[in-house]
Amino acid sequence: METGWTVYDDEVDTEARDALARAVVKLVNHYMADEGCTGELADPVRRMSGPPRSLDEKKDAMCGIKGLRLPAAFTHGARGGTVLTRGDGPVRTCDRDVLFGHPQLRLMTIEDPRLAMLYEGLSRDGAKARVSAGEQDGHGFVRDDMGLFQAECQTGQVTFLVRAENGDHPGDIRTILPRYVAAEADRIGCGPLRVTLPADG
Q: Nearest 5°: phi and psi at 86?
């Protein structure tokens, strides 16, 4: 499974992005009103992150997350840059080893429960190798190209995702996922989350 493309800050027209976001929300609100719903979605623009920026990483702050250590393979084998979502927002994405606009590794935290729920089906059916952090804390999976954990936090569902360009480095996914979930959960106030991976093999 591919990680997708990396978007750089100079490629983002924030005015056009904001106008599109407002138009979509306005359309959805009209549709919901026509269907008899009384609530409506708020203006999304104030919660959107700034355009992504390049990041000079430190060994103990992978993707700018204090305490998230770089695995040895990434410390010595990095081939490209790191691009990180700027500021707070409903989704935080870090693309690592970006070459020609394509990341070899993507780490993503989806804090907005309305967006995180899009991964609910995948988190339960993504693979046989299940990931857990206690019976009530969440669920997910790990496989050669991806690791995903969906947690029940105070604010609702949060999704943590680590996706590799391909399945050539399954050990990296297994190493990074528990560290990433723990560090990000602490950062956003959802911790402690200490996921347990199934036995390798």
A: -95, 130
